[in-house]
Structure of FAD-binding PCMH-type domain-containing protein:
Amino acid sequence: MGPAMSTVPHARCAPPDAVVWPRDVEQLQEMVALCHQHRVPMVPFGTGTGLEGGVNAVEGGVCFDLNRMAAISELSVEDFSVAVEPGVTRKALNAHLRGTGLWFPVGASGTNAVRYGTMRPNVLNLRVVLPDGSLLHTAGPGRSARYGVME
């Protein structure tokens, strides 16, 4: 007899009808609003490291590949804060931080999360494009970091 057959069911591959690569938040908002207006399913795609099949477009639609939204800005060494777009990986962020004395060890799961904690306490404010294309700031527009120099 050969190796045992896996009893884990596998999802059938369901590619989207189209893939788009927005370059900034405004472009993303416009495309999301169009999909919402025409009732087209939307599937976000980040770095592609997940194994759970989250980008399987079972209803078709448009996949939003966010890899090109990879800007890193508003670095404040004093406040231990930085603004990143959704396409920024932990490795890219750490390459950007090299030489500043800062390091971002946190991952979504795995050994780094066990050792250094998870993302939740490290995310201070999100700009979220809602399904209708509107923009939401979870902590308020222009909100500054919770860390700072104490007087």
